[in-house]
Protein 1
Amino acid sequence: YAVFDINGYGEKIQYASVRNVTCICYNGKGPIHADSGYNDLSSGGTIEVINCDLINENTSNMAHYNTGLACGLRDGQRVVAKYVNSNSSLWAHNVAPLTSYSGCAFELYGCRFPNTMIGDVYCYGRDKFIMHNCKLNFIIFDQSDPFNQKRDYFKYSWDIDLQNNEIGY
């Protein structure tokens, strides 16, 4: 499924850290996957990925899973990547009930990767995307509604903080 999958623990966790490793994924979601209520929802929770190489070697039949780090954030969760190198995307989306705020954070510092995609699933706001001192080709902001939630109100959810990055286009 993934080299390191937070969901695999079977229990909610408050904090996890992956440091100083190379993760290579063949025919899975990607080297690191964090989704589906992986941590303690009562007080958020943090996943750190520090000084890692995330290599996605998916074959053509798995081309839609082209991520090095994939995150589905909800209820105050925070993912922090520092000095991560990847041959594929660093990607996050948020999820919250239609009437609440998720208050999540996706933070990238000093990372090198081809692109990042930030998705708005069905949130109402208060999420943070921070990217400082990174090098990448492009950023995608996706406001699609993959669950076909018919919303009578939509507010783009991410507060964006970009500083000192090299972005190709």
Protein 2
Amino acid sequence: MGRMVIIKKSFTNPKSIYAILLLSVFTFLFLGAEYLYVNMISLTAGEEKTVLTQNYALGISAVGFLLYPLFHRLLKRRVQIVGLFILALAAAVCNFLVQKHVSYSSTLLSGMALFLFLGILGSAAHYLFFKLAKDRTHLARMVGISYALGIFLQFLNNNLVDLETAEALILSLFALVALALLLKAERLCRQENAEAEELQSPAIEDDGKGTRKKIAAGGFLALLVILMACIFSTLDNAVTMHHAAGTDIGQWPRLLLAVSGLSAGFLFDIRKRKFMAMMMYCVMLMSVICVVVLKLGGPFLIGLIVFYLSAGFFVVFFTTSFLDFARHMPTPALWAGMGRAMNNVSAALLTNASVALLVSDSNGMASIILALVLFVAVSVVIYLYTAWMPVSSGTPKDIPTDLDPQEAFRLLSELFILTPKETEVFDKLVNSEESIQEIADGLYLSRRTCQRHIAAIYEKAGVKSRMGLYQLYIEKQRRL
């Protein structure tokens, strides 16, 4: 019963609700724009050219994801708000230009601009989601719900709206809805003071060696997403080519996307995401087997079902992984949306090779060999990432033995990634009987700020009370 109360509080918190709505609206807006863009391009282009232009659009959106952190860092808040307003309006206009489809060139250019704007808006959405999603215990669950809701909105839109003009109008309206949610989320985040911002970026206080290790872990995670995206992009390109060639795929497979994304969120959060990488590894294996089966003459329907079931897991995996990783880095605005950026970069860079392989590989051996090589590469990189990631999703590693109590206390503080001020509060919590008000007065903090530090310490240590924190501290000390 207690666990259900905690979950209910997490998902009824206004900030959690806005975070879920923000990411779901962006998901619908991005996927809906991509669907409309592909439909318009396919009117005057063959299936191969359609796939290429689709992935070029994804590539330009990745540029937008990487531009937003610069805007966030260099521009003042009011300028950022004006910029987001202009981008949302520009995205709405570009949707209509894509729908008009005056010519192939005009549709291509307006589509490139549209996805650049959506990339910037998407990066902002991921960063604000990161700031609003305080409950890291249910992070994957929140991402899964957001993704499933966005997919369901797209399913309704594709089934209930027949006119392309109406579809462009709805997408334009949702661009404005996304803007409203971004501004509301930004206002909610501003309610947090400077101390709360410190809690979200504890790695600023880290030493050079620790920071380098975290950057290396981020590099391995980015490489892992890129390698996995190779398989999923190939399956996606095969589906897109069938769609562009006139094959009626239907809309029901999108419900599989929603179900798989929702399932992934709940499964990944088991034991604080301790088994998330292993689960994703199994899904990756299933996708590789699917490629082999398709190339050996298996029915396309099997590939379609496997693609939609596994794609939901993949999206929730890379989104959650980078949102979780961002809290360890000094520039969370860069890392929060990096998962989507790396996925789109991979799609853009590999699109020519993927399409050429799908068209020319008649016997399927080249595709099978490539899939197996990618699987081996993923196996190696996922091992390296697991070894280098800054903090495990499960229980922190044991501290070394043969250390004096002060050194053990220091190592525990590092394992929990505590900021200097959190370390001082942590010391008071486990080595004194002072009340919260007494701790706050002794450290010259307000009671509210002190409570935020305590909440952050509990979250990082994986406990729910001061007694639980003290018991964990004593347990570690006994191992000396």
Protein 3
Amino acid sequence: AEFGADALPPFKEALATAQALIEDAFERRRELDDEIADSRTKRRTFAEKILELCAQADATLDAQEQSFDELRDLQTRAPELREKLLSARGATAEQIVRIEKVLSELTTAYGPTALLSAQGTLAQARDLDALTLISLTNAETALRSGALGRAAVQVRAAQQAQDQIATLVASVDNLAVTVPALVERLKAEQLDAEADIVAARAIPAPESADASL
């Protein structure tokens, strides 16, 4: 009711995961409590596993509780954050244009096989930018209707999309440094290998025993 159905899947998934972990823990507990006598080693192993399962369930729910608290916090700042994210889209668009140029230059210089790890990066960045605009538009609609909770969900979606774009941009910038460095290193190793071959060929062949007679 407060945040809309779009915000529910992560919470539902976390709840289902926690329930499965707890059921596993209870099943192990029931096995320990049955009429069959268990060794001390098995009881200790099962007890440790039960504690581990309960801790995992607790951590899963805690993570979503934190996410819920963040949404609550976003409610009060949704209008301000929406405006900031909207203003930042210009810089994001420039970054996307820049990495397109970087990828094009790297492909021309080193060939497409050198950039396999970046395949789809540009398209993904553009899709995320489009998602940002959709989310911000939805946030504006929610704010106008007074649905602050739903606006917070959309603002967070826009934030996450922008964070992913930043990660993609950083990965391309990293390639712009690592690929040329790797190529230069390979060239240096090739030159060293060729020099070793030349040096090896220059070594006189040992005289045979027959030649010395």
